[in-house]
Amino acid sequence: MLITMSDKEIQRLAVLQDVRDQRITQVRAAEILNLSTRQITRLVQKFNQDGISGLAHANRGQPGHHRYDEAIKSECLAIISEHLLGFGPTLAHEKLSSRFGFHIPVETVRRWMTANDLWIPRSKRTKRPYQPRYNRDCIGELIQIDGSYHDWFEGRAAKCCLLVYIDDATGKLLHLRFCEAETTFDYMISTRAYIEQYGKPLAFYSDKHSVFRVNQKSTKDTSITQFGRILSALNIDLIFANSPQAKGRVERANRTLQDRLIKDMFLEGIHSIAEANAWLPCFIEQFNQKFAKCARNPKNLHRQLIESKIELDDIFTWQEPRKVTKSLTITYDKCIYILESTELNQKLVGQYISFLEYPDGTVAIMHQGRKITYRIFNKLSKLQQHEVVENKRLGAVLSHIQEQHEELEKQNKRSRSKHMPNRKAQQAIIEQRKLNPVLDTLS
Hints:
This protein is α+β, with helices and mostly antiparallel strands. It has four domains: 7-55; 70-122; 143-291, Ribonuclease H-like superfamily/Ribonuclease H (Nucleotidyltransferase, domain 5, 2-Layer Sandwich), CATH 3.30.420.10; 317-376, CATH 2.40.50.
């Protein structure tokens, strides 16, 4: 006969055998097992009467009193197999409760599904293999880009984002730039600086951030982001990584930068984004000397930049189409722009023209390569409460709001200190009020 016992019961058995063999007393056994002497007496009596089986818990192996009936369990599993196959335990529990009237705890449903191979716990699933990918052969063939949001200045300045451009073939840091947030305009500025220095690479390799890819399912297949439009105009491909492991080179570089770059900036006494961006070329040179490798093929695949400065200015903009009204006006960002009333502009009524917003905040209106002169009819100078703010300008708007709050707080402090009398003046007023009735009586 097989008797199943716990570790606690096995320890009791060894002590009670010593008691029965008179090697220790019941008082000593009570101290060892942290029980009362009366309980030791009862256990010894049960051990002498039933043997080892008398020390095992009587309910071991018996069904629980609160278990569900087998018929209910079978019916729930049948429903899951027929109607809810592929559902997770949490969702299956919700549907069993709302649609089929079975109010079973979610952990019970999870246990039933796991035991009947209707659900595989995450810890037991086969790990997806991430096979290694060889680096590209030539410099400029594939440039990995990413933004790393971190406390780069260790409290000396606000948290910010570092845009990283690294070559896949050599591991060279080609461009670094600090900015307040990972926005389209910041990527415009960084990408333009990159291609003006090195030329146009064959492709950029990025994650699925909304700057690079339209993530809304309804427009994913037909739309393109502003950054994607810019790269298309420059004949640069944009490739999306399916996982962080796929762009491991830039991810590992971010981890290294969050250690080395932070410490170097501390030693250099850098306390702001402007100071850091001015110093970063020196850091890039030192970093590449230590970590960069030679490409398997010495050919440089960066292409020469043939676009002029004016063309680049117009390419690196936020562009949106706007329809010209009969009164020769268009609306953008709660502003009405009145086009110059010329014979050429009259033909644009009812047509869509391009509204260009530059990274520095200036705007332009263009149609088929021709800049159109305009004037602003009205403009909201202050941001109203509950106004919808474009994500591309959110960082600047929040900074403006914070500055307004700080300035208002300073004005309130100055106002309170100006109108608050000092303590001596307050005491003199109180004494004067006390003397007034006495003076009146004497007079």
